[in-house]
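pls read this stuff:
=====
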Amino acid sequence: MRRMQPIAVLVLELASEQAVTVHVDVSRRARVTSDLPGATRHSARRWSINGGGPELKIAADRGHVRLRSN
């Protein structure tokens, strides 16, 4: 899955037990945060949630990408 988001806040809510690998392609004007308990940040652009799993790709030029549990 790939999601393009213009200037805004993109909130991705995942079930707390969901395993996924998130690749975030962002510019210096964007930021990424996570409050997921199983999130491991491997780099500024790659996160593993609960050990990783299917890939989710997100691209943002500006704004805020937030990963959180529902």
Notes: The chain has a mean pLDDT of 79. The radius of gyration is 11 Å. The first strand starts at residue 2 and ends at 5.
